[in-house]
Structures are given as C-alpha cells and as structure tokens.
Amino acid sequence: MAFLLLILFCLNFQEAKTLKDFQWERRVLVLFDFKSLNDRGEELEKQIKERRLLVVQFEGEKLIGISEEFEINNPSFLSLKQVNPSSSKWYLIGLDGGVKASGHSDNFDWEWIFRKIDSMPMRQSEIRNGVKN
Asked: Which tens digits make up the pLDDT trace of 17-47?
C-alpha cells in the first residue's frame, strides 16, 4: 500500500515540461499576445491533434492556453521571445526541436501552418505510413 501511495505522489508532482522535453514527441506552436484563438472549434482541434501539434498561448508572460493537459515550464517557452523580441509573435517548432517558421499576428493562418507541417519530411512519412495520433 505504501508503494502505491509513493507512485501516486510521484505522478502528481512530476516536473513541468520544458520546450526541449517535447522534442520528438510533439510539434509545438507558441503564440504570444493573440486574442482570438481561444475558440478553435472541433474541426480545427482534430487537425491540431492529427499533426501532433501542441498549441501554447501566452499573453505577456502569463500562460493563458494550452491544447493538451501538460504542466509546462513557462520560462523555457518564453525564451523564444528573446530570439527576436520585437517582431515575431508566433513560432512553429518541429519534432526535431528547431524553429520551422515564425511570424506576426497579422500573417497568422491556420491553413498555412498545416500546409507547412504537412510539407515537413517527418510529417510526410507519417502520412505515407498512416500514422495516427
């Protein structure tokens, strides 16, 4: 019984995941200061999940939304703003952990994001092999 309680205790206090922890696990889209993305709808959620995409949204330095139930390490995600603090408002991170695209809120387009992901070699492999999330 004590062993079971120890396991449950450890599961409840797992470390928050850093951006690097999602490498090879999820593609990540980090959004800064977007106001209109909270209501994504069922079809959009399906497309996000199909592409193994984690969407993380900040307002300033405050986490205001995440597409999956993860405890994240905010500073590791906020460090993206230091790359180009004044211009980029969103960053698309590939499975390999590299920044694949970034831009302003005025040029953000879900369809473009999905096409960009679908053009990536690992996504092409997933499509060919019928890999589902």
From this structure: 999 999 999 999 999 987 655 566 889 999 9
Q: Do residues 56 and 77 lie in contact, with contact meaning Cβ atoms separated by under 8 Å?
A: yes
The C-alpha atoms of residue 94 and residue 22 are separated, in whole angstroms, by 10
DSSP SS3 for 71: coil
3-state secondary structure of 31: strand
Distances (CA, A) of 41 to 2, 16, 37, 38: 44, 27, 10, 9
Give 13-129's CATH code, choosing from 1.10.10, 2.60.40, 1.10.390, 3.40.30: 3.40.30
Side-chain half-sphere exposure of 124, counting CA atoms within 13 A: 4
Residue 94: helix, strand or coil by DSSP?
coil
- Residue spans of the domains in the chain: they are 13-129
Amino acid at 38: N
Question: Strand, coil or helix: what is 75?
Answer: helix
Amino acid at 20: K
Is pTM, for the whole model, over 0.85? no
Number of CB atoms found within 10 A of residue 130's CB: 6
